[in-house]
Amino acid sequence: MNDRILLGHGGGGRLTQQLIQEEILTRFGAGPLRTLPDAASLTLNECRIRFSTDSFVVHPLEFPGGNIGDLAVHGTVNDLAVSGSHPRWLSLGLILEEGLPLATLRRVLDAIQRAAEVCGVPIATGDTKVVRRGQCDGLYLNTAGIGEAIPGLSLGLDRIGVGDRILVSGTLGDHGMAVLSVREGLRIQNGPVSDTRPVHRLVAAIAPLAGAIRFMRDPTRGGLATALNDMVVGQPFGMFIL
User: Fold this and answer.
1) CA geometry: angle at 125 spanning 119 and 127, to 5°?
2) What's the distance, Cα to Cα, between the start and end of the chain in Å?
3) How much is the pTM?
4) Taking a C-beta distance cutoff of 8 angstroms, is the pair 133, 208 a contact?
5) How far does CA 180 lie from the centroid of its chain?
6) Partners of 17 in the beta sheet?
7) Is 163 left (phi over 0), alpha (psi -120 to 50) or beta?
8) Beta partners for residue 130, in sequence order
9) Which of these, 105, 90, 94, lies nearest to 127 by C-alpha position?
């Protein structure tokens, strides 16, 4: 392994997996983090909850179809949902860079407010820090969430087996291409638009089929390729993609 962190360590691919396996799980992998779930499955006084956290370092901050604010809300709501829970509360951590236009911050906060209201998941706690100019890419966000487990919906990579089918809930690559088009200055008429949206109501709707559902994931960092790889790594079977 390299003796310094590279940008590729955050890309969701082989370097990311190597970093997690060798440096993180060797220290913290004895508990709920062991299976690297999107949200930890915890029990408190017989109350089954899901707990998740995520950090957002998107560049640019704004893109066709959304900005870092609604992306952060949807990301944590979705991680809770695909882990088999009803999202209940979110936290919000802001890291602001000196010189960030206040108008940009207001647009991001407005997006967070709208997304949280649409999802029906309130921001329950938070924190704000400001760093010197050049120490942050304008604005970073961290969100954490708590969800209430959906009865009967037991999910996990260990439940995947031969004969299972993989379903996707929408088209692929919309968000990544929308962000990339702005980042690279591509002028595309009627170009890609981010599909950042919450999926918790979709998960709640399929809960009656819980016995037939093995595993779910919101394919963000690394996209579908990383999600599919996670499903079969270390397994005695592979998959067909049609």
Assistant:
1) 120
2) 35
3) 0.90
4) no
5) 18
6) none
7) left
8) 96
9) 94
Q: Give the H or E element holding residue 94.
A: strand 85-97
Token pair listed for 223: 């996209």
For residue 170, give Cα distances in angstroms to 191, 197, 202.
17, 11, 12
CA 159, CA 144: separation in Å to the nearest integer? 26
Digits of tens for pLDDT over the chain (242 positions)? 578 999 888 877 788 888 988 999 999 988 888 888 889 999 988 899 999 999 999 999 999 999 999 999 999 999 999 999 999 999 999 999 999 999 999 999 999 999 999 999 999 999 999 999 999 999 999 999 999 999 988 898 888 999 999 999 888 888 888 888 888 888 788 888 998 999 999 999 999 998 899 999 988 777 888 888 888 888 898 888 87
What is d(CA 242, CA 240) in angstroms, rounded to the nearest whole number?
6
Q: What is the DSSP letter of 100?
A: -
Q: Which two tokens stand for residue 27?
A: 């220290």
CA distance 164 to 174: 26
Pull the structure tokens for residue 148. Answer: 């209430």
Q: 150 burial class (0-12, 13-18, 19+ CB within 10 angstroms)?
A: buried
Asked if residue 84 lies in contact with residue 118, where contact means CB atoms within 8 angstroms, the answer is no
Among 33, 96, 83, smallest CA distance to 218 is for 83
Nearest Cα residue to 60 out of 101, 25, 116: 101
Helix ranges, 83-220 (H): 102-119, 174-183, 200-206
